[in-house]
Structures are given as C-alpha cells and as structure tokens.
Amino acid sequence: MGLLDDLDRGLVDLIFPRDCSVTQLPLDDGPFRHLSLAGAEALPRISDPRCLTCGHPFDGWLEGDRSCPHCVELHPAFDRAVCAFRAKGPVRHILHRIKYGRSPYLADDLVEVASQDEAFRRHLAGSVLVPVPIHRSKAWSRGYNQTDRIVDGLARRIPGCAVARLLEKHVATESQTRLDRTSRLRNVAKSFRLQPGARVDPARRHVVVDDVLTTGATLHACAAILRSAGVRAVDAAALAHG
C-alpha cells in the first residue's frame, strides 16, 4: 500500500472527521481509527461452544452427536480453524468494503478487536502466519490483497507470530461467492502452489489465514500445499465465519 492509499488519517481527518464504520456516528476518543467503542461492541463475536474443526459457532450446547454440518464433508487438510466474528451484519458490511470498496484500512480495526479475543489470540500465538494469496490479475485490478494486511496486523499484535508468504495462486478461478460447497472445492483444487524458492520449517506450526471462512475450501486447499511441502502441524484462521 502506498501513501495515498492510507490518507485516511492526519490532516485529512482534521478536515473531514470520520464516522464509525458501524454506527455511522462521529468517532469517539477510543483506540480505533474507524470504529467507535459502541461500534466495536456491536460486532457479532464467536464464542464457545464452537466446532473444533472449522470454528463455526454452536448456538447452545448440543446433545449427543456434535458433528458440524459446515465441515462434515470437508475432511480438511488443516487440524483446526478458529474465527473471531460471525460474517453477518456490520462485519459482513465492513468485509465487503475491504474487498470491493477499496478500503483495506478497515481491516486494521477488525484485526485489533480480533486480537483481543482470547481463543483467537491463543490459536495464533507462536505460529507462522501464511496469508491466502490472490491471483496476480486480481491483485493488479484491486491493488492489494487484504489478507496480507490482516496477517501483518496480527503478527504485530500477537506474541511469537511470524509471517511467511509461502503460497501463490497460479490459476485464476471463478469467484467463490455464489458456489456451493462441492463447487468451491472443485474451483480451488490445484489453483495454489508454493512460491518459487519458498522454504518451509516443518517443525513450526503454520496457520493459513483468510478474511472469511465459508465452507473452508480455500483454506483446505492452501493447507494441503503446506502439508505436501512437509509441514507437520497446519491450522487455519479467518477474521469471520459465515
């Protein structure tokens, strides 16, 4: 990101004060750049109980079989995924602005709030964070990969994390947005590979990170590449699930 992309602060703020991305009211003196304290509280969080594989929240304790309908057919290459938010309401709106509204800076506050979640923080601590890449054509048209910004922010906030851009997307695929689970798996299969010259440390736990986990197909495909490269412990994470 260049200087012009981040002119959302400083002198510009004095001339055009910002409103909260959630409440649309003027920002207070809280710790965030684009969220008020009330806006941060309104973000729909995920808490336990949740699926121990994909991280989807269980709304109330389930009796007997605790299988998760969101990942029961996935058989993921990652061991466990943890997400901080539900991808609905204000979180979905902010993520849409990040990806399609040329507002990557909005990810910073979501990362800040997510980093304060104990389960999410514990899941990432001490790991190598691997961002899910986008194809170079999409990176060129969009101007950025929002997941790069997410992992850089997480690494600054969570102890022991390192960032390794180990993967590349070498096949441009159809958008996953309107595809069902089976089609998503087929769509991203074999579209990722290791970056040329990339080296992995098989002894360290790697966590593949994306902005949203829906069916888990993308995170599964990326985790499978790391497994094939010799990484023994691979987990996944996303800011939001849904």
Key words describing this protein structure:
242 residues; 7 strands; globular; five-stranded parallel beta sheet; two-stranded antiparallel sheet; Rossmann fold; 14% strand; 2 domains; alpha/beta
Largest sheet: 5 strands, parallel
Radius of gyration from the alpha-carbon trace, in angstroms? 18 Å
Strand order, sheet with most strands: 1-7-6-2-3
Q: Output the number of helix runs.
A: 9
Shape: globular
Oligomeric form:
single chain
CATH C-level label of the largest domain: Alpha Beta
Q: Report low-confidence residues grouped into runs of 5 or more.
A: none
Provide the residue-averaged pLDDT. Answer: 89
- Helix amount, in percent? 25-40%
Q: Note the run of SSEs as H and E.
A: HHEHHHEHHEEHEEHE
Percentage of residues in DSSP E strands: 5-15%
Number of domains: 2
Given helix and strand content, the structural type is: alpha/beta
Q: For the record, give the distance between the C-alpha atoms at the N and C termini, rounded to a whole number.
A: 28 Å
Walk me through what this model shows.
This protein is 32% helix and 14% strand. It has 9 helices and 7 strands; from the N terminus they run H-H-E-H-H-H-E-H-H-E-E-H-E-E-H-E. Helix 4 (107-115) runs parallel beside helix 7 (146-157). With 242 residues, the chain is of the alpha/beta class. The model has no long low-confidence stretch (mean pLDDT 89).
